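REQUEST FORM: STRUCTURE PREDICTION
Request ID: SP-0412
Submitted by: Lab K.M.
Chain count: 1
Length (residues): 156
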Amino acid sequence: MQKMSALYCFVITILWHIVVFIFIISWDHDAFYKENIKINIKKIKKRERFYENFFKIKKWKDKIPQYIGKNGFSKKKFISFNISYLKEFIAETYRGEFDHLACCAIIPFLFILSSFQTAIFFSITVILINLPCIFIQRYNRARLRKLFLLKYKYLK
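STATUS: Completed
RESULT:
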């Protein structure tokens, strides 16, 4: 079987990212929300500290661009402590994480379709582009879940 050139790998990788993105933004937020009230605030704080201390996420997370569609959800400004807003924001972090993880699913195909060196190059590129975004989603979700749990307990 003939292996693809780097140009074809580039085109296929970009097309894959676009297809995944279009597919995922068409889903409703409710498809991504997982309600888990039993999660422990200490565990959440531990996760939050891990991303702050190990990855120094506070220094660079706001420098990564974000997608906001025409009816999009801006993650730059926190606008409400309302439970439904927090749920929507948490769902958005799941959606964003799933999107970036799904974009990484092309990696095995790169090894099948192209030379080893080309596959390594594009795999590293895909990981370097998507992994910081996954870390940001997880970090923000930990912070949002902490707020949600505090608010939820307050309302009970």
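NOTES: The chain has one domain: 6-25+46-68+78-155.
Reviewed by: T.R.
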